Amino acid sequence: MHKKIFQSSFLTAFLVLITTIALIMGVLFHFFEEQIQKELENEAVYLSQTVEKTGVRFFDGFEKQTNRVTLIDADGKVLFDSDAEAEKLDNHADREEINAAMKNGTGKSIRYSQTLTEKTVNYAVRLSDGSVLRVSTTQYTVITVLLGMLQPLLIVLAAAVILTFVLSLRVSKAIIEPINELDLESPENNVAYEELTPLLKKLAEQNRTIEEQLADAHKKQVEFHLITENMSEGFLVIDKDTSLLTYNSAALELFGITPPVSGNVLAFCRAKDFRDTVSKALAGEKAENTMVRQERCYSMIANPVFEEKEVIGAVIIILDITEREKREALRREFTANVSHELKTPLTSISGFAELMKEGDVSQDTVVDFSASIYEEAQRLITLVTDIIKISELDGKSIPFQSETVDLYELSEEIISRLKGQAEKRNIALNLIGGKTEITGVYKILEEMFYNLLDNAIKYNKENGTVDFIINTTESGVTVLVRDTGIGIPAVHQSRVFERFYRVDKSHSKQVGGTGLGLAIVKHGAIYHHAKIRLESTEGKGTTVAVQFGKDSFAGGEQ
Amino acid sequence: MRNKFDRQLSQLNAELITMGALCEEAIANAVKYLTDSDEDSRDACLAADSQIDEKERDIETLCMKLILQQQPVAGDLRVVSSALKMISDMERIGDQASDIVEIAPYVAESGIEDSTHIRDMADAVIKMVSESVESFVKMDMDIAYQAIEHDNLVDELFDKVKDELIKSITESGRNAEALIDLLMIAKYFERIGDHAENIAEWVVYSITGKHKNQSHHREQDTRRDPHDLSGGR
């Protein structure tokens, strides 16, 4: 723009200059020419009058001044010429100006020299005797004048050009500067040119729109990022060439990959299950699959992304379902165990009943059978009760009443209930400790310690001892149940708290119990936020410690 | 034009990763069949092998197309040419895995493989193949060098297995056929290890432009034992 303005202003000035010079020269030249002609006429008229009065003698001793003077008689013969000898000149009758003067009294003509550099202006007047007086003057032509003036003209022109150049430069700069200094960040605050206002307004409007859209896009991006980064599921988006478009950190974590990751999604994971899922999704089908990788179990859900009925990519979500699978496996095991445990007594009952139904049994045997049936039924009842208890604790569906419980009093009560059982095998029960109050659910605590004590007696040796110790420390209350029994082998120690887990499967029938006792203890402890510690040496005895925290509290709402 | 080229290159990359993953599967399943005699893994291994063959053809075609139509230069050409070399190594791995599967039943019948180091060898080879594929996927030189390094371990194990087998044959003389089969399996493992090493070397080449063999051969030429007529490796 700067260049354009400069060029046009410079050109304009230059053209104006040239035109002006040309015009002035033309006008002036014309004016001078006329002036000269008038002078010539005047001189001719003046001379003719003098010649009329004095005759040809006038020219004797005539001294030539600037103009050439010629006298021609009526026949055209030259009588006198101020520049040349009259005799040598030829007849002038056919000259234009003389011819005209002879006819009309005056005549004039302009003749150019051969080189066009000079021109001769002639003026002729007819005298009363018919002769003609001609005055002529030689002038330079326009071209000669121009050529003569060339040097000063060029100097003037050059000066003008330089001046024009500088001025044009300045002008164009002055015009452009405000435009250059426009603050495009806030176009509306500019006061440059009125003509630019609509443009600037439009610009400001667009700036605002762009800003809004950018902010919007940014917000969406942040939202998306927040959502994907804070989900625990791995999230991958791929295009139809399986190139990775986006992923979240959970995905990196699940696959154990260190960023940066780029390129192909197969760089994330190239296991067969994963590849199959991806290719199925890219074929346009929703795909779900599970995958085992480094001892963890993942579930993959891949959804194709369509654009105008064509698959353009896929979204893959990966969940770590190891825990879920484990729970699922436990549940399946539990169900299988429950069915088995329920079936065993029922089979016995059914068998005894079948035999009695036949009627071919003696009275004594019937009594025996009935006793057996009763026993098995009792077992069933205990089992079902235990299952109910554990599912209550499991589901936490029933709100238990929290209250202050004196553990010593509770223990005394439990010991009195189990005394008979212990005396049968000559086992000594010792309760050590004093009045200790904690907040908890009486029913659950009773159940827990009953089971612990029951186990301590059941799995004890003849003449053994069971110590029930209640210990108050700074960190809370610890209840220890220590026996001198058969102990638990190390391999089983971590599993005895599982439901229906039996150390010695063959002995369960003799000893009794449902296999749920320690599971109930564990759940009760979890309910009370208590910790369980198990120490056991095979053949020497077992110690179970239940450690209640300082503010051990169990509420139905928790 | 470049866009299409990039797409083709990324397709080549994806195909190579898939082929590498298939190799891993083939060898893992072959080993599983060898140790557990699990029929499913036998089928899986053979299926992977045939897929590997298919992939080799696909990738070959793709590489040819890339070279002819795009005329890649410098780094891109290295990627394509190393891909061409890699697929033949991968294909050999697949073949040898299925060879193992073919011999495995005879060995399993005799039940002797537990006594040798063959299991350690299998584990080492699986690890090597995984590493070489991983180094390609991540274009990671460290992992590639790791894989190359591991080949020494596999070679050592092969020697151990060989010695053990020789001992078994001379001592008991029974089950000689199965022992020879086992030796072949060991050899296959050793070969797979070499192919995995080659893959890792090509990965290094495609990153740096220098192939180990270039310097290796020269060294070997000067070092070569004049009595050794079998040549290099």
Describe the structure.
The complex is a heterodimer of chains A (558) and B (233). Chain A has 558 residues and is of the alpha+beta class. Chain A has 13 helices and 17 strands. Chain A has helices at residues 2-54, 96-104, 142-180, 197-230, 249-255, 272-282, 322-358, 363-395, 407-424, 442-458, 490-493, 508-511, 517-527; strands spanning 68-72, 78-81, 106-112, 118-126, 132-140, 234-239, 244-247, 287-293, 296-307, 310-320, 403-406, 428-432, 437-440, 465-472, 476-483, 531-537, 541-549. In chain A, the strands form four sheets. Chain A has a five-stranded antiparallel beta sheet with strand order 2-1-5-4-3. Chain A has a five-stranded antiparallel beta sheet with strand order 7-6-10-9-8, sandwiched between helices. In chain A, strands 12-14-15-17-16 form a five-stranded mixed beta sheet, covered by helices on one side. The longest helix of chain A has 53 residues, at 2-54. The radius of gyration of chain A is 66 Å and the shape is rod-shaped. The model of chain A is unreliable at 552-558 (pLDDT under 50). In chain B, helix 3 runs antiparallel to helix 6 (176-208) and helix 5 (141-171) packs antiparallel against helix 6. The longest helix of chain B is centred in the middle third of the chain and has 37 residues, at 74-110. Chain B is elongated and about 65 Å long. Chains A and B meet through loops of A and helix 1 and helix 4 of B.
List keywords for this structure.
heterodimer; A: 558 residues; alpha+beta; Beta-Lactamase; Helix Hairpins; 17 strands; B: 233 residues; mainly alpha; Methane Monooxygenase Hydroxylase, Chain G, domain 1; 7 helices; 0% strand; disordered C terminus
